[in-house]
Prior knowledge:
- The complex is a heterodimer of chains A (306) and B (342).
- Chain A is mainly alpha-helical and 306 residues long.
- Chain A has helices at residues 4-13, 42-47, 49-69, 105-113, 144-147, 163-189, 192-208, 241-256, 259-262, 275-282, 288-305, and strands at residues 26-28, 33-36, 73-74, 81-83, 123-126, 131-134.
- In chain A, the strands form 3 sheets. Chain A has a two-stranded antiparallel ribbon with strand order 1-2. In chain A, strands 3-4 form a two-stranded antiparallel sheet. In chain A, strands 5-6 form a two-stranded antiparallel ribbon.
- With 342 residues, chain B is an alpha+beta fold.
- Chain B contains 9 helices and 13 strands.
- Classes of the chains: A mainly alpha (306), B alpha+beta (342).
- Strand 4 (81-83) of chain A pairs antiparallel with strand 7 (175-177) of chain B, so a sheet runs across the interface.
Amino acid sequence: MDVSDILASHAAKFQATTVEKDIHLDADPGCLAVSDLNPIDEESYNLNLEEHLQTLARDGTQVLINALFSLPTTSSPDGPLAQLPPPVFQLPRAKPLPKPKPPTKWELFAKAKGIQKKRKEKRVWDEEKQEWVNRWGKGGKNKQVEDQWITEVPHNAEVNFDPRKEARDERKVRIAKNEKQQQQNLARQANPRETRKREIERDLVQTRISTASMGRFDKQLEGEKKPHGIKRKFNPTEENAEDERKASLALLSKIESDAKKMRKDPQREDNIVNVRKAIRHASKGKGALAMAGKSDGKGNKRKGKR
Amino acid sequence: MLRTVKPKNARSKRVLDARAPKEVEGPRTAVFVKGTHTGEVLNNVMKELMALKRPNAISFSKKNAIHPFDDNTDSLQSVEFWAGKNDASMFVFGHSTKKRPDGLTFIRLYHGRVFDMIEVGVDKFDSMTDFKTPKATPGHKPLMHFASDLFDSHPRFMQLKSMLLDLFNSEAIDSICLPGIEHVISVSLSPTPASLNTANSAPDGARDTTKPEELPKVHIRTFTVKLLASGTRIPRVELTPMGPFLDLSLRRFREADPEMLKQAMKRPKVTKQDVEKGLGQKKKNMEVDEMGDLRGRIHLGKQDLSKLQTRKMKGLKPGMDQEDGDSEEEEEEPRRKKNKTR
C-alpha cells in the first residue's frame, strides 16, 4: 500500500515550524526576546516593506515560540506554565543591590555558639479563657497579671504592695532593656565617620552658645546658618525644694565622678563569646583547673557504674 | 535625591519598604512626559506606547519645559526629582521643535540619577485604531524581536535594544503562561549602509561618531500572535498587524557613565544552595492548597492487582473448576464455622 499521498496531504494541512536562515536565530526565552543577526535583505525591503517586516517578525517569533514550547512546563488553571531559564541579555539595574543588614550582638553570639533561630508564634493558647490570645500587644499574655481582676499577694508583702504595679514595672524594665540593647546594636553598626561628623556638628553648636551672651553678640561668619531646632527651656521660678536639691546633687556628683575616665574600652567584636564567663558557667564557678580534674573524675565514676 | 524619611507609621513603612532596593527587581515604571510643544502625532505615539506599557506607566498631563540634552538647563534635575516622587526609573519624553520635529527621548535612571538617554524622531506613525484587528490584553507580556546585525555590533543600536527591552520586558520572570502569549514587538532596521558594514568597519570608537543621517532607520511593528496546530507539540505562528507601527530615526544620545554602568550591571551573588535547589524552578510534587497547607504527592510504584483480595466467592476459588458439584456442601460447613469464630 502506498501511503505517500496521505502523508503529503497531511503535511500540506500542517505548515512547518522550522525556520531556515543563514545565521542561526538567537532566542533568549529568559527575557522573551529573539535576535536575528542576519543582514537585512535589501531587495525584499525595497519591494514591499510591510510584507518584508512581517515575514521577518514571523520567522523570529516562530523561533522564540519553538524555544518557549520546548521548555519544561507545569500545569495551572489557566494553561501550561513554561519554566523560563535565567535571562541571557543583561539589563542595567534600576536601583543598587540591597546592602546586607549588619548582625546584632545576639546574632553574632548565636552564630558562634551554633544556636538556631526559633520562630515564636504571635498567638498562644490560653487555658483559662480557652482561646488564642496575643503573646504581646492588645490583650497580650504578657499583661495577664496586670489585667486580671484579682491577684494573690504573698504573706510577707508590705502594706502598700501593689501586685499590678509590680508586674507592670517588671514588664517596663524588660522593654527598657531591649531598647537599650537595640541602641547599642545601632551604635555598634554605625559608620564611625558618620558618628564623628554628628559629634563635631554637636560640638560646634555647643561652642557657639558657650559665650557670655550665649552667642548673641558674636560676630557672624559669612555663610553661617542659625542653629536649627534649638529651643530655650526655662525652669519654673518656683520649684519643689526636694527636686532642686536632687538636681543640684546629681550635677555635683556628675562633675566629681571619674566615670568618663574610668570607662573601659569596648569589647572587641571578634571574641563575641566571653570565654571567662563561659568557663565560670560550665565549671559552676570552680574555674578551668577544676573542670580539667573533674572530667577525669567523671570518667572513673562512669566506669564504676558499669 | 529626596530627603530620606524615617517612617512614622506602618503604612508609610510599607510604602518605603516597597521602594527599597530589591535583589530581584520588578518591572520599570515609565513616566510619559510632554514637552512645551507636542504635535498630534507625538501625542498619539505616546498614548499608544503607554497602552503597551500599562499598567507600569504614569502619564504627566501638563506640559513641562525641559530639554534633556541641553546641559545649561537643570532639566535632568527635574527628571531625577520626578523619578524620586513617582518611584519611576524610566521616562519617555516627547517634544517637537522646528529643528527636530516629533522627537521622542527615552531616559533611563539608576539609583535616582540619569543613566543614559536616547532620542529618536518619529518619521511615520500608524495608530492602533488604523487596523481593525483584535488587540492584545493590557498587562500581558510581549515577545520582543530584533532583526539586524547592528543590534549586536553598533553601540547606538545596542543601546536602543537595551532601552526598548527595558521598557517592555525588564522584569525577570521565572515562568510564563503559554496561552497568555498574545503579541510581539518587532524592531527591525533598514538595510545596513556600506559605511557601517563589518567588511570595511572602523574601530568601535570611530563608528560611534557616524552622523545620525547615515544610520539606518528603525521600524517598530507590533503584531498579535496566532498559534496554529502543526501536528507537533510546537505550534505554527501566524502574525496579524496590531499597531502601533512606528518608523524612527536616531538623533541625539547620551551614553552611560562607565562607573555608573559598572555599578548598574552588578548581579546578586547566587548561593550554591540556591543553584542546587533550582533557581526559580518549582519544587516537584509539592503544592500549597487553598487552606494554606503544604501537600505532597509520593510515588508508590505499580500496584500488583493479582494479589488483590476481592469479594470471596465460591466460584472463584482456585481449585473450583476441577471439582464436582457434590463436594460443595461438604466444603461449605467448615467455612461457616470459620466466619463465626472471627
